[in-house]
Inverse folding.
C-alpha cells in the first residue's frame, strides 16, 4: 500500500496521522535502532536520503515521533529493583497526583487505567529499601493517593514497541 491511509480518530479524540508503507517501515527501523543513520535508513526502505529526511521531519512535526531516547539497562545502571505499583486515588485529583508522582525520583512511568485500581506506576530503584521509601514515604505522602499495592518484578522481557503491519 503506497497511498496514505485515511485518518482515524483515537480514543483521546485526536485524529491519527495517516501513514503509508514507507512511513511504517521508517518507524519500524527507528524502533529497532534509534541511532541508525539517515543514509542507512533510506537504503533499507529504498528511498532517497532527501525523502528520508523529509519523512522523518514530517513524522516529528506531526508528533508521530515524540522524541529520540536511549534505552537504559536498569541493572547495569544500578537500578536492580523494579516494581509496578497500583494505586487507588481520588478521581478529581488525577492531574495533581500525576504531576507529583512524576517528580518523585525512581518513578519511570505513570498511567491512569481502568479496572480494580485507578493508576499504575513503574518504579525502578537501586534496592528494596529505596523502593520501600519511594512507595511508603513519597507516594503515600501525595495528597489524593488512597492506597497502593506493590508488585515486585522478578524478570522482564522487553518487546521492541509497535509493529507496523497491514
Amino acid at each position: 500500500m503506497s497511498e496514505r491511509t485515511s485518518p482515524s480518530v483515537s480514543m483521546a479524540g485526536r485524529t491519527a496521522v495517516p501513514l503509508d508503507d514507507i512511513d511504517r517501515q521508517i518507524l519500524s527501523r527507528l524502533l529497532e535502532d534509534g541511532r541508525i543513520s539517515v543514509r542507512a535508513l533510506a537504503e533499507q526502505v529504498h528511498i532517497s536520503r532527501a525523502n528520508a529526511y523529509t519523512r522523518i521531519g514530517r513524522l516529528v512535526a506531526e508528533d508521530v515521533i515524540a522524541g529520540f531516547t536511549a534505552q537504559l539497562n536498569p541493572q547495569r545502571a544500578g537500578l536492580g529493583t523494579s516494581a509496578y505499583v497500583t494505586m487507588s486515588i481520588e478521581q478529581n485529583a488525577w492531574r495533581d497526583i500525576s504531576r507529583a508522582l512524576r517528580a518523585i525520583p525512581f518513578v519511570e512511568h505513570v498511567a491512569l487505567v481502568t479496572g480494580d485500581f485507578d493508576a499504575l506506576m513503574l518504579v525502578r530503584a537501586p534496592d528494596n529499601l529505596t523502593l520501600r521509601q519511594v512507595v511508603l514515604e513519597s507516594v503515600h505522602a501525595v495528597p489524593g493517593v488512597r492506597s497502593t499495592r506493590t508488585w515486585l518484578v522478578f524478570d522482564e522481557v522487553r518487546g521492541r514497541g509497535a509493529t507496523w503491519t497491514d
Remarks:
- Residues 84 and 122 are 5 Å apart (CA to CA).
- The two ends are 9 Å apart (CA to CA).
